[in-house]
Amino acid sequence: MNQQLARHWGLDPEVTFLNHGSFGAAPRVVLEAQRREQDAQERDPIHFLAPERSLYGKLDAVRDRLAAFLGCPSEDLAFVRNATDGVNAVLRSFPLEPGDRIVITSHGYNACNNAARYVAERAGAEVAVADIPFPLSDPAEAAAAVAEACCDRTRLVLVDHVTSPTGLVLPVEEIVQAARDRGIRTLVDAAHGPGMLPMDLGRVGADYTTGNLHKWLCGPKVSGFLHVRPELQESVRPCVISHAANTPAPGRSRFIAEFDWTGTFDPSPLLAVPAAIDFLEGVLPGGLDAVRAHNRALVLEGRAILCEALGVQPPAPDAMIGSLVTLPLPASGSDAPPSGRVDPLQLALFERHRVEVPIMHWPAKGQRWVRISAQVYNDRGDYERLAAGLVAEGEACRT
Q1: Could you give all domains of the chain from N- to C-terminal order, each with its CATH number?
Q2: Which end of the chain is more exposed for a tag (fewer CB within 10 A), N or C?
Q3: pLDDT, the chain, mean
Q4: CA separation for the pair 19, 42 (Å, rounded)
Q5: What pTM value is reported for the model?
């Protein structure tokens, strides 16, 4: 662990943390900002939470800062708890008819793919899976797989900007344009986007984009966004319907008002997001661009260390790597965990080697992968410790 930079986080110094990609990790200064908001909330909950008295103004200030960061008008940006919440809001609002098709991908996040199947079943529609190969050698293979899964009945494509199980940066701009050319709407799940990749929602042009602010942007948990093109906002509703459904908020669209208030909630994670942006802009000389470049270079170095230790080849080109890398492991056979259980190797790495890293079963049980993350608190030694642990556990399995 890079001790000089790790001091900004409260991570356990006895654990090699290589799983920033799952839930992120908020720096101390961000949590302090959140705590100040929580304290202010508890000093006068009515004034703080009453939307028209205080909360709307606070949320608008965050929205303006975030919109500039994401490259979109602030009035097109709503807040959600996380990317899964945003995906569900779009899918459950989408005007599906019997026989319509939603296209998802074989690398999609399971929770969001489940949501697509749920709404399709209720509407009498269908879900088609674009089978993106892995390993692959070119981003065009991913775009081609999505295009092949579309037909004249396809109404929506749900695609990850960065895939969760495989850590691939997909060519979303090309996928979005190809879908638009065929009259198909696109929903981009950018759960890993903010903080890992430059974000320009206006240039990408997706109809809907949702993402997390607690992962690579290092905001507190329960902070996310949903961007919707202006002409579609009237039809997109939050999963929880509340007062704004029939009580207009002066100066606010129903889209913004409904998502801003779905019932009593703690807004402090959202209100601390500007502190997270400030932190990442200042933690390294060169700002957030330097952070992204550092993390990408480090994860590629970690990939090289693991490939040598495991005797495997990188399954994706450098051009498709951000701050995540997924590499193959030997099949686990009967050791595959039942649904919802942690892989025994993941537990062994944590308990015996004090390394926190996910072991992914994808696309089916028994096909195992190790996924590494890189954040500025990591260093080369972290990946060397993981490699040693994987080799040791591999030897233990053979004896």
Answers
A1: 3-26+287-398 (3.90.1150.10), 30-277 (3.40.640.10)
A2: C
A3: 95
A4: 33
A5: 0.96
